Amino acid sequence: MTVADAQGDSALVLVWADPEAYLAPPAAARLLATLERCDGVDIVLPVSNEPWAEETRRAPPFAYSTPSGLFETAQRAAESEAAPFPLLAPRSSVYAVRRASLAKLPAVLALDEAPRAICEGGGRALADPGAYLHRYAEMDAQAREDLAAKVPDGARAVLDVGCSGGATSEALRRRGVARIVGIEPDAEDAARASRLYDRVLACSLEDVPAGEFQAEFDAVLFGDVLEHLVDPSDALTRVRPWLVAEGAVVASVPNVGNWAVVSDLLEGRFDYVPYSLLSGTHVRHFTRATVCDLFEASGYALESVDAVSLPPSPEGAARLARLSEYPGASPDLSVAEFVVVARPVRQT
């Protein structure tokens, strides 16, 4: 999108030019209100969990995993009295800007370049801590330190299924892993991972020939992968012969029985998002019982199932408490994710 696309006659313009950014209504309103009251300021940027520049990085006031939770987070931030602060090198695809400031820029200029161009032309930019923007863009590139920590002691070879860009490499190397092989269907991610891993197969697990590997891996990682597969049992069965005698599968799966999802369902909502518990690419959903069933049906003995919980917001804590009072309520309502370690059942 370019400056020419921002047509209209309003004095203020709200630009939202990133499809993987989630600007909740309270944050949008706060951006416009701040710009309107700050005379002499040309553009106001939000703060974000994954910003385009470090000077606008801010952690949210509490964790969230659904759009309704994000709305509460943005609302809490918008109600704060945090003061805007000046920016030296503003970068963002989401911002509020004066139309008069945009009009000074070339019509062909990309909108995500406008903040920089405005400041280079002598304009003033602020960031508002009360306008919180959530971005999904870099979440799949995060290192899985938690999974690396579950790799068996003394492991020398690890297969990382769905390795993305190979961000877990350093954590595995610190564990003493000498050989890391990745499987990643996204060509760009596979190319990045190949610079960090010893070998990367740029294809889906289903396309790896059954005889490609022998019993050579001490661990196979599935970091938030199984829920994306049409047949996760087939995936677990496929990698079983590739494990050494004492090898293990280490996997993480989101808990669809989390209180935030259950609460939304009670209100008639099930809102998909690019990542997190309700990712639009999830084709399988798990609770503790169903993920245990999956591994056991696929020929594995469970060694451990750890629960990962995130501290809820004040309103979320109240909802969790109410849901927990229902007769027969799951003890895992507070759990966001399960981390499973399982070993193949060997025939005797």
Written account of the structure:
A seven-stranded mixed β-sheet has the order 9-8-7-10-11-13-12, sandwiched between helices. Strands 1, 2, 3, 4, 5 and 6 form a six-stranded mixed β-sheet that branches. It has eleven helices and 13 strands. 26% of the residues lie in helices and 24% in strands. Strand 8 (179-183), helix 7 (187-193) and strand 9 (199-201) form a beta-alpha-beta unit. The model has no long low-confidence stretch (mean pLDDT 93). The protein starts with 11 loop residues before the first strand and ends with a strand. It has helices at 25-37, 67-78, 99-103, 114-120, 145-148, 169-174, 187-193, 232-239, 259-266, 288-297, 314-324, and strands at 12-16, 21-22, 43-48, 85-86, 94-98, 125-135, 157-161, 179-183, 199-201, 217-223, 243-254, 300-309, 335-344. With 348 residues, it is an alpha/beta fold. Helix 1 packs parallel to helix 2 and helix 9 (259-266) crosses helix 11 (314-324).
